[in-house]
Each structure stands twice: as structure tokens, then as C-alpha cells.
Amino acid sequence: xxxxxxxxxxxxxxxxxxxEALGLTRPSYEQVRVLVHRARRDRLxxxxxxxxxxxxxxxxxxxxxxxxxxxVGVPKTSK
Length: 79
Known about the structure:
Helix content is 59%, strand content 0%.
């Protein structure tokens, strides 16, 4: 339900409406915020395949894979 630009409060309202329609308890605003932040962060992070391709084409150093897999993360490149 989050497109990356919709305000958190609006995402929370939409999630709450869907939860009620399904007969579920509305999640707390704080929990929705945590999940939206995580989804937005993950959407911005490069995938393992992108990192491997970048390493193959020498856009990133080989240790970028270790950083990615360990959870440290690597920034997107401006290709």
C-alpha cells in the first residue's frame, strides 16, 4: 500500500481500513511506521544480483559483496 511517497499517516489509514474489512485488529501507527520504513529502505538497497553484476563490470570492489551479505549495506551507484 506504500508507493514511497504517500505520507505514513495515509498508509496507516489504508492499512487500518483493510484490516477492519478483513475482521482483523488495526495495527498501531508505530508498527505501521516501522514496517513502512523497512520497506522503503529495502526498496532503495541494491539486490545481490546487482552487486554481483557491478563487481563483474568493475563498478564496485569485490568486498562490496561481503558488506552487502553481512547487512552493512552498500549504496546505490549512479550508473
